[in-house]
Structure formats: C-alpha cells, structure tokens
C-alpha cells in the first residue's frame, strides 16, 4: 500500500497518479486517508498525555502515604483509576483508528511511474519491441496489426491437441470441470520439458530455485495485494481459511514478510515452479477456448527484492531474461508497456509479453513483468538495513512470469506445424527427447 509519508508530503502527485490509473474518486480517497491519519495522530496525542498524567499521579501516591496524607493519597488513587479508564477508551479508539486507516489504504492502488503512458484500456498500451518487422516502435496496440508469420492456413491448438493426442479437454471436464485439461504422452512431456528449460535458464541467470506451498494464509494474500482486491478470483478453502495461489509470486515474496534484510544481500533473486489456480469468474467466449484461459496451469515465476536505487536496473534485467526465453523458443513476440488504466492494482510499471497465435490470428499474453516500488513491501513490512547509516527502509519488490506454460504451448503447437508434424525448437529438444510431434 502507499505510505502515509508519500500521501501527505506529495498529495498532488499521488492524486495525479491515481487519476492516471483511472481510479474513481482519487482525490476523495487521498483526502480521507489524510483525515484518518490526522484523527489517529490526535488520538495518539491524547493517549500519550493521559499516560503521562497517570504516571505522574502514581508517583505521588507513595510520597503522600509516607507523609501521612492518606486522604490526598486516596484522591490521587481515584484520579489514577479514572485515568486508567480513559486510557482504555483511548487505546480502543486508537486501535479502531489504525484499523480503519489500514482498511482504507488497502483500497487505494499503487501509482504509476512517470514513463507509464496515459490510457484507459488495453488498446492504449504501447508496443515497445517486437521481432516481427511489421511492428513500429511506439505504436499503440489499437493502431498496429500483425501480419501472419506464415500465409498458409493453420489448425488451432485444440484441434492439434486432439489430432496428436496431446491434451484431452473433455477428460478434464469429466474429472474436474472446464479449464482443467489433462496432458497426455508427448503433451505431458512437452509440459515437463518447458518447466525444466525455464528453471534451468533462471538458474543460469542467477536465480535461486524455491519450492513453496501452493496454498497460503490470508496474511500472505494481503501482503502481495491479492487480498482484498482479488478475493473473488482466488479459490478459498473455507474450513482452514487458506487460499490456492494464483501465482508463485505470493508465497515466494511472502518469505520476506516482517523481515529486515542486510543491504549486502540485495538484490535477492528467486524463481519457483508451481501450479497456479484462478477462478477466472466471468470469463467466457472464444477467447477462453482450449489453453487460452485455464483454472489450473503451470508457471515459472521470477521474483526480486531490491534497493530502490537499483530496482529499475533489476526490472530491465528481468525483461531481458523473459525476452531471451522467447527468442530461444523461436516464437514471434512483442513487448507492451501497459498504460495507466490497464495496469494491475499493485504495479508501478508493467510490461506484458505476447506471442502471436498463427491459427487464431491474435496475440496471447504469456508474461507480465512488474515493478511494485514500495507498495508490496509496505504491506509486507519488508525492509533492509543501510550498511552505513544502519537505518532501515522499505525494499522494492518485482516479479514476472518466466514463463506461463498454457499459451506458450498453444503458440508452439500452432506456429510450428509442418506437413510431417509439429516441430520442436532446438533449445527445447534436449528436454523433450524428441524433435517432432507426429
């Protein structure tokens, strides 16, 4: 969440940032936060004064008793008793004020960086790079259309999956429901090959592999911003009050909740492979067919914890890592800088990676790489100690998909069709153990 220091000292910048994200009632939300903070501080002042006065009277009681001034001592005791009652009331008011302030701050999204473009919808996102010659750098998505990689007609991945017996969507419906496919034979081996390839590439780039739980408590969901903002999109185990993770970002980043790190240990670079679970409530239509939108899927996530002055460099390195994976997989891709209105609740800046689906004639998002500035760290109370001053300050957190498997599989199947079968990219062949699906 945004810090009170930022809200109170840079109010107009915060309001402008929230408006850039198209957050309704931006000024009202900021003014309410300031008012709640003022109320909290006023209550704290009253509480401190009451405690000081109570301490003063308590110190007088012993001296009065020694002097034989029993009546005055009893009067002081009565005064202390009244002050204790007032202290209890003020402490309750203080807690209520703090809780109300925290609840309100949780409803305010992060503000975008200056370089984030204006815009309200996905069509306003800016294409910053592509390996297709038709792309013009700086064009918005709404003004740019990709030409097909190959002119010949192509089968969509759900038909290829059936043709080569790679994925059984109907069997998944029987076992669990729509959005839970069953991978078979070379389809399962392709999944496993991609997982190992992505993890090995992350290790080569200096990431430490983590194998976290795939269920988390509410505090973890709150720490990274999934709760309360996306509560309806998470699967909830009500009896135990646990949530199935939508991404490894949640458990891996929460490793550093309530932790003070040493400056010399930064940046911290972790990666994790997990199953991910998303309810995707309200999703329907042709865009969710096949692997396009699932309730359960595999994903490798990269997470960084860094110092503020180095986080932009970390973000750049993460973008280069994801781009390198797509190059090695020989896929047509583009990189988008998301506009303010299309950014997530918690991000300060986000780049999306999309691969081109030859059969569907459209782009499929396969990764989002975000810098959250101090927004998550403030929720997590994730700090580091300066080596020279020994003072603590909030870290910056970053994360990205490297990569999400379903749409990568879809693009690999669709873009690598040949008369003899589906060609496997060279970089992936040592992991699959085969060079073609036939």
Number of strands: 19
Distance between the termini: 51 Å
Please state the CA-atom Rg, rounded to the nearest Å: 27 Å
Report the biggest beta sheet as strand number plus sense, adding barrel if it closes: 8 strands, mixed
Overall 3D shape: elongated
Helix vs. strand class: alpha+beta
Beta-strand content bin: 15-25%
**Average pLDDT, all residues:** 91
Low-confidence stretches: 144-151
The DSSP helix count reads: 13
| Secondary structure: helix percent | 40-55%
Give, in spatial order, the strands making up the sheet with the most strands: 1-11-12-13-16-10-9-4
Explain what you see.
The protein has 438 residues and is α+β, with helices and mostly antiparallel strands. It contains 13 helices and 19 strands. A hairpin with a 4-residue loop joins strand 12 and strand 13 (362-371). It is elongated and about 105 Å long.
